[in-house]
Amino acid sequence: MKGKKIEDGENCFVPTSEIIAVEETDLNKKQHNSGKWQKMAKPHAFTVYYVKKARNHRWWCSDVTFWCVDEQLCNQWIQALKELLELQKARPKQLLVYINPYGGKRQGKRIYEQKVAPLFSLASISTDVFITERANHAKDNLFEVNINKYDGVVCVGGDGMFSEVMHGLIGRMQKDSGIDQNNPKAPLVQCNIRIGIIPAGSTDCICYSTVGISDPVTSALHIIVGDSQPLDVSSVHHNNTFLKYTVSLLGYGFYGDILKDSEKKRWMGPMRYDYSGFKTFLSHHCYEGTISFQPAKHTLGSPRDKDSCRTGCHICRQSEQQLAEQRKKCGLKHEEDEEEWKVIKGKFLAINVVNMSCACPRSPKGLSPAAHLADGSADLILVRKCSRFDFLRYLVRHTNQDDQFDFSFVDVYRVKSFQFTSKLLEDNESDVTDIGKKHFGQFCRDHPACCCNIANSTWNCDGETLDSSAIEVRVHCQLMKLFARGIEENCKEASRNQSRVEQLL
Ligand SMILES: Nc1ncnc2c1ncn2[C@@H]1O[C@H](COP(=O)(O)OP(=O)(O)OP(=O)(O)O)[C@@H](O)[C@H]1O
Ligand SMILES: CCCCCCCCCCCCC/C=C/[C@@H](O)[C@H](CO)NC(=O)CCCCC
Ligand SMILES: [Ca+2]
Prior knowledge:
Bound molecules: adenosine-5'-triphosphate, N-((E,2S,3R)-1,3-dihydroxyoctadec-4-EN-2-yl)hexanamide, calcium ion
Number of helices: 13
InterPro entries: ATP-NAD_kinase_N, CERK_C, CERK_PH, Diacylglycerol_kinase_cat_dom, Lipid_Phosphate_FormReg, NAD/diacylglycerol_kinase_sf
Helix content: 25-40%
Protein name: Ceramide kinase
Structural class: alpha+beta
Distance between the termini: 23 Å
GO cellular component, one term: membrane
Low-confidence stretches: 433-443, 499-505
Pfam families: CERK_C (PF19280), DAGK_cat (PF00781), PH_CERK (PF25382)
GO molecular function, one term: ceramide kinase activity
CATH class of the domain at 235-475: Mainly Beta
């Protein structure tokens, strides 16, 4: 925390919504050997802790101390400011915190204890902290806990840990409402308990794409001020069996293969993705199959838009209104969907379905820079078979400002539902007696030199592996909420204005 001293004639402007706490100042701890109040016989003081916005969407906690001789006046100020804070009804008072001690660089516990817990305590937030001992511990616990006691759930970890907590919360919500998750057409019940993400994983793409930075203090402050960001969630089914939910990337081929390989190298920490990424790039496998999807006609945007989803996004707001109208009309009844399906067959290096941009420190604009957080759609990115050099050109564009969709071998669609069946499964279903296929080994029969893999790939579902050669995906508009506000526009400008006001007044 940084301290700030306001000298005579100087003023400070902070909106109440960005005040973290107000406290009487302990004069024994505070040095007051400079300034006009130094001459005060018996000074009284209070400190206001507030959000300071820095560059690149980073927030930190700053403070300013006010001094006066009149004790009563000082107390009146403290009281008045505390009353103003009480009016901030969206702020959480009681949180349930899950820490994955093994995510990312295994720093989750330290990050929480050193950077986050002191801020929660400053903001008078009570917490029940649960350190996980195994995978799915948090998810299982969410089915047992008295959830109504909490104003939110915080997960300290990476995308995988977030996914676990999300599955626990959504699953619990459906169970309590008697909704069968195995029915792919069931209208799911919205989850109103917000999730806060304290990034301590390897990619932290969900945090980065919803806050604009992967920084534990920034995320803690978004939780404290009670931000709320709705989020689309896609459900993944196979043959009327629920498999998983996804909010960031559902990827087959390249990203699935990276993940599968990297799971064996967890001991490497976040570096495992670089190692497996390089290996998978060299292997250059493509996969054959059939894709069907329903275009998302209800939303105004397109994946080729130049504008990205930002705080208060009008496209997401419009989807929210549509959702509310639909609920009024049909309640929880399933609405028959007659919309057309498009079918594409081919050989692909990567099939990616993204519910959000998937921006992360490795790729600051993400896999689909114009994807929206809460518009009820996902972007389907198809990377067809191409040369290694072309695929590298495509990948490099994830790291610079060039358009990664401007390639003849890349197609992108905004969809509301999607299906995939691998060629292998189609062949097995249509011709189970074709023994030659079973004996031919792993690679393409027609072109042994080509890299088309007859074996299936794996799905990368928010960083968790999922093996299924046929899936059915459906986007559920704004199924859940995060303690975030989306990425703020002109953050630098905002921070410059704040400091200008501070200097001027
Ligand atoms: N105590 C635990 N021991 C082992 N695994 C755990 C434990 N707690 C949670 N997990 C599992 O660890 C997996 C990975 O965790 P997490 O997402 O936090 O880190 P990561 O994979 O390094 O980061 P990212 O997902 O951002 O790439 C999750 O699937 C989660 O279910
Ligand atoms: C020559 C330079 C080429 C550089 C190419 C960089 C491309 C980076 C794109 C990153 C996209 C991340 C998508 C997010 C996926 C997460 O749900 C998942 C879980 O955390 N992470 C990964 O699968 C980890 C995926 C890691 C991929 C490397
Ligand atoms: Ca979306």
